[in-house]
Amino acid sequence: MASKYPEISTKMDKTISVYGADLQSIRAGRANPAILDKIMVDYYGTPTPIPQLGSVSVPEARTLLIQPWDVSAVKEVEKAILKSELGINPNNDGKSIRLSFPPLTEERRKELVKDIHKRAEEAKVAIRSIRRDAIEGFKAQKKAGEITEDDLKEIEKNIQSLTDEYVKEIDTMLAKKEKEILEV
Q1: Ramachandran region of residue 64, left (φ > 0), alpha (ψ -120 to 50) or beta?
Q2: Which of 54, 98, 100, 172 is the most exposed place for a label (fewest CB within 10 A)?
Q3: Termini Cα distance of the chain
Q4: pLDDT at 3
Q5: How far, in Å, CA of 64 to CA of 173, rounded?
């Protein structure tokens, strides 16, 4: 979003993109390759994300297929998946790994919705914290005589409306993900 305050917008944009990536990593019943992005494999002593070790495809709605370019990495990828919080047993055929995602139970769906609401609130707190820091900076400028009281009021109003836009964007992303999770 373009604004009169590019530094503030940039910080808020980063918060939105982190929240968006966070939402992508939450599985909603369908197989999504993004859930593998944060799983690190010990590849010759270097922690490497699974998508950098091979191709990840979605042959069916609830299945991920991981085909490492280096067949010797299959065992390490399998170990990393077992250690992760995915809670899925990988099927290893020696050349590739299949992950079959079971359908979500109603209870698990409710837990996920609760979790994404918590994450949304954390993102909103981060946005509000950026707003607070920015306004404090402008208050210091007013105290130093660099801007007037009227300027400060106008700036506060503009920053608040910018904050409101970002909070609304978080709410929109939350509603979309919630709908995705609750669809049966």
Answers
A1: beta
A2: 172
A3: 34
A4: 62
A5: 24
Beta strands in 20-146 (DSSP E): 40-43, 46-49, 54-60, 63-68, 91-92, 97-100
For 116, 142, 153, 160, the CA distances from 147, given in Å and listed in that order, are 41, 5, 10, 18
- Which backbone phi and psi does 40 adopt, to 5 degrees? -100, 135
Q: How far apart are CA 87 and CA 64, in angstroms?
A: 14
Cβ atoms within 10 Å of 80's Cβ, excluding its own: 23
Residue 51 is classified by DSSP as: G
Predicted TM-score (pTM) of the model is 0.68
Low-confidence residues in the chain, pLDDT < 70? 1-3, 27-30, 184
CB-based burial label for 4 (10 Å; 0-12, 13-18, 19+): exposed
